Amino acid sequence: IIDNLDMSLTLLMDGSGSVGSGEWNLMQQVCAAFAQALGRRDDIELIVASYSSGFETVISRHFDKRLGKYHAARPDAGGTPSGIALAAIRDSIYGRLGTRRRDKVIIHLTDGQPSDPYEVKKQVDLNREQHIETFCILIGGWESPEFRETYGKRFQRLDDYGQLMQCLTGLFASITEAR
Predict the structure, then answer these.
(1) How far apart are CA 142 and CA 83, in angstroms?
(2) What span, in angstroms and rounded, lies between the C-alpha atoms of 141 and 50?
(3) DSSP state of 79
(4) Which tens digits make up the pLDDT trace of 114-161?
(5) Are the beta carbons of 97 and 77 closer than 8 angstroms?
(6) Cα-to-chain-centroid distance, residue 1
(7) Where are the alpha helices (DSSP H) in the chain?
(8) Crossing angle for the helix pair 21-38 and 164-177, nearest 10 degrees?
């Protein structure tokens, strides 16, 4: 991993009902292990967020256990509110709460179809306009044409959660090499 990245990295975890409890626990463990592997770095601000029918973000800056919580939009309908979660990260975490990091990256970890794929596309496009790179790792879910169209080359599909750590570290390595 390259030094002096000046990056804000968000791992956005889909915690909707379609993610089983075993898979949810594994996703959390992988994100925690990934954070631990990064270690104490001043050049990376890590944000780990999850969403389901509501949205809650736990912000951990430099892994020093100073945690804050932020509550954002709650959708009225069921489904996976991926678009709302992407908007909340951009507008609230990167917007109002602010980050002074040069590079802003979101890695969206999901297993399924969003409740509104057009909203996801809109939010990913808005992220691009605001220089926020948005990636998606689809784990074991059905791959719709909208995923490929929305994320393009920033999309990866895994067969199961056991592949997540390897994929996440490989993706992060390719992101940092591009800097």
Answers:
(1) 18
(2) 18
(3) S
(4) 878 888 999 999 999 999 999 999 998 777 777 788 998 999 999 999
(5) no
(6) 19
(7) 21-38, 82-88, 117-129, 145-151, 164-177
(8) 40
